[in-house]
Specification:
globular, 140 residues
Length: 140
C-alpha cells in the first residue's frame, strides 16, 4: 500500500484517476450519457463490478442532473473523475484487458472504488440535494 488514501493495485491509484480526469471534456460527458445502458449492463453482469451498481445509478443521476442544468454544484474535477471512471470501465483494453475472465474487471473495480473515494463528499452533497428536491416535488 502506498501513501495514505491511495490503493496501489497494478499502478492504479488516486493520481491515475486524477490524471485521466484532466483529459475529460463535455463530449466525453455526452458519450457516457449516450452509453448509459451499456455501462449499467457492464456493472450488472460483471463479478467485481456488481457491488457498485447502486453507486453507478447515483453517478448517472448526478451526471444527468448536471448535464440538464438541474445541479451545477459539483466541481468539474469531480464530474470529470466520474466520467473518466465510467469510460475506463467500458474500455475493453485497459490495464488488465476485460476479455480475461473475472480478472479483467479487477482493475475496473479498483478504479471505481478510488473514484468513489475521491468524490465521496460531492456525492453526499448531491444525494442530499436530490432528496430535498424530490421532497419539494412531492409536497407540491
Amino acid at each position: 500500500m502506498g501513501k495514505k488514501g491511495q490503493n496501489k493495485k497494478d499502478g492504479i491509484d488516486e493520481e491515475f484517476v486524477k490524471k485521466g480526469a484532466k483529459n475529460i471534456d463535455e463530449d466525453d460527458v455526452q458519450k457516457v450519457l449516450d452509453r448509459e445502458k451499456e455501462i449499467r449492463e457492464t456493472f450488472e453482469k460483471k463479478g467485481p463490478l456488481a457491488r457498485f451498481i447502486e453507486d453507478v445509478k447515483l453517478l448517472f443521476s448526478l451526471i444527468g442532473d448536471y448535464w440538464n442544468g438541474n445541479y451545477k454544484e459539483i466541481p468539474w474535477w469531480a464530474l470529470s473523475a466520474i466520467v473518466f471512471t465510467l469510460l475506463y470501465v467500458i474500455n475493453p483494453v485497459d490495464l488488465i484487458p476485460d476479455f480475461i475472465p473475472f480478472v479483467g474487471y479487477v482493475d475496473d473495480a479498483a478504479v471505481v472504488g478510488i473514484c468513489l473515494n475521491l468524490v465521496e463528499k460531492e456525492l453526499h452533497k448531491y444525494n442530499e440535494w436530490k432528496i430535498a428536491a424530490e421532497g419539494a416535488q412531492s409536497s407540491d
